[in-house]
Structure formats: C-alpha cells, structure tokens
Amino acid sequence: MKFVLFLRTNFNRRIAVDLAELEIFRAVALEESVTRAAKTLDRVQSNVTTRVKQLEEELGVALFLRDSKRMTLTPQGQRFLGYAERLLALAEEARQSMRGDAPSGTLRVGSMESSAASRLPRPLARYHGKWPDVRIEIQTGTTQALIDALLAHRIDCAVVAHPADGVPDTLDMDVLGPGLEGTFLFSEELLLVLPHSHPPVRTPQDIQLRSLATFSRGCTYRLCAEDWLASGEGPRLALNVLELASYHAILACVTAGSAVAILPKSLLALHPDAASLQTVPVRVAHTLLVRRSGFATSAYAAFLQELQHG
C-alpha cells in the first residue's frame, strides 16, 4: 500500500511526499547517520542519500546539518520530524484497520522500567504466541518521557503510573496530558528500601542516610518518594538526589549502604538480595495503559487484553 501526501509550502507550491520518504527521513534523524539508517531500512546507502536530498529539495529547506561524523536535525528538520511521526503513525493505524480483525503490523509500546521487568514478560510471551505477525517495539523511560513520546506519536501506547492515589476508575487523565485515554491495569505497593543495618524507620524523620537513589525527573515513583519524604510532623527531610539510569544501579546504592530508595514491591521481589534489605510501606500507585484518544487497532486491543489477564 502506498500513500502520497500533498503539502503546501510557504510559497503556495503543492508538493507530493510519499511515506517511503518519511520513513527514510525518520530513520536518518533517529540514527544520525545515512549508513546506519540504510542498514536499518535494508536499503543501499546511495538510495537513502538521494531520497533525503530529494525531500529537502521538495520542501525547499535543509533538514539536516552534515559533518564528517553525523547528521543532526536543523530546527526545520526537528519540526518536520514531529509531522513525519504523526503521519507515519496514522498510516500504520490505517493499514491495520484495513486488514480485518486479526492483529498485524507494528505496535510501539512504552513502559516504565519497573513494569517492563516485573509485569510485561508473561503477557508479551502469550501475545507473541497468539499473534506472531505483530512486531512489538518496546522502549522504556519515565512516565513523563513516555507521555511525551505518546503525544509526539513516537509510540502507540504506554504503561505508566498515575501520580494520584485515588480510586483507579476516577483518575484524572488530564494530569498526564491532553487528549489521552487510560485503562487501569494494576496497583503497585511502593516501599521505602533501606540497608539492613539501618535503624528502624516509622516516619521520614527517622531516616539517617542523606541520599535518595532514583530516576530523573518525570518519574512518578520519584514524585511519590519526594511527597512522602516531605510528610510527617517533624522538619522537612532534605536528601541529596542520586539520579540513576536503572533499578540495578539504584538497588546497588541501597545495598552498599549509601542511599535509600522507593521502589514497587513487585520489582523488589525480583532482586536476589531483597531479603537482606529493610522495607517500609509508603503508598499505593496505580498503573495504566495509556493511548491517544481515538487510537484503535486490533494489535492494541489484543495487547490490552493480555495485560488485563496479568
């Protein structure tokens, strides 16, 4: 199936851009290299170079800054990438809607790292067994990073945590972002995790360590941790924040006795040294599968069904 898009330039000139050009442009933008993009797309390098130059000529702007090592987007290229992501996502949704009820095509899934490790393996295995024609692409990140990717059409759906602790079915989706719909999946019990040798903790003021190991801003669990640490009747507890890239690194800091952390119980259960750590219940956080309003494919529906089965 071939789509051709007709765009109008600032000079009121009508130009045609096909999806193949958009796919090539996106690949070069993501890889920052014609060579790597050609390998990803299984195309010859000269073809990729030619199609990018043709696209730039048709649009009348330079999309890339070129040097000997990499290709980076110009401001116009960065803006055009947003449109390309949306158009390609819509085209894929259209393709799938024309193929009947059997899931097929590509489903781009975002997930918090904790959910990817503790909650997704079994549903993904079942899904692949039932629908081998669907290609699932997984990327992990903080809740905010995944919401940004979803709104930019870089992914189709995301497993994220909602910052509120109310009734799951009444959570305000506007808190996450505009134009989103969410389906409740499960609740996670968040635990304060401390070294085994740390004195017992009942309130935030009992914590003697002065470092919190966590992800970067945008992580809902970090927000929950900061809210809890600011609670209590005593003076506000001020901790140094160690921003780390993985739960392995976070737990390594806790095990070494240099920091505390707040993690979901389901993830901690996977850690081989969990029994040697001290834990304190903090709160419950609700996890949702979020999509853009109106997004609906058979691949997505089947994925949601597997997640709801646990």
Work out the count of structural domains: 3
Report low-confidence residues grouped into runs of 5 or more. Answer: none
Sum up the overall morphology in one term: globular
Number of strands: 12
Query: What proportion of the residues form beta strands (DSSP E)?
Result: 25-35%
Radius of gyration, whole Å: 23 Å
CATH topology of the largest domain: D-Maltodextrin-Binding Protein, domain 2
Helix fraction? 25-40%
The CATH H-level superfamily of the largest domain is Periplasmic binding protein-like II
Strand arrangement within the widest β-sheet reads 6-5-7-12-8-11
Major sheet size, sense and barrel closure: 6 strands, mixed
N-to-C span:
36 Å
Key traits:
310 residues, alpha/beta, Arc Repressor Mutant, subunit A, D-Maltodextrin-Binding Protein, domain 2, 3 domains, six-stranded mixed sheet, two-stranded antiparallel ribbon, globular, WH_DNA-bd_sf, LysR-family transcriptional regulator, DNA-binding
Can you give a write-up of this model?
This protein has 310 residues and is α/β, with parallel strands linked by helices. It folds into three domains: 4-95, Orthogonal Bundle (Arc Repressor Mutant, subunit A); 100-187 and 288-308, D-Maltodextrin-Binding Protein, domain 2 (3-Layer(aba) Sandwich); 188-284, Periplasmic binding protein-like II (D-Maltodextrin-Binding Protein, domain 2, 3-Layer(aba) Sandwich). The chain is 38% helix and 25% strand. The chain is built from eleven helices and twelve strands. The strands form four sheets. It has a six-stranded mixed β-sheet. Strand 9 (211-214), helix 8 (220-229) and strand 10 (240-243) form a beta-alpha-beta unit. The chain starts with a strand and ends with a helix.
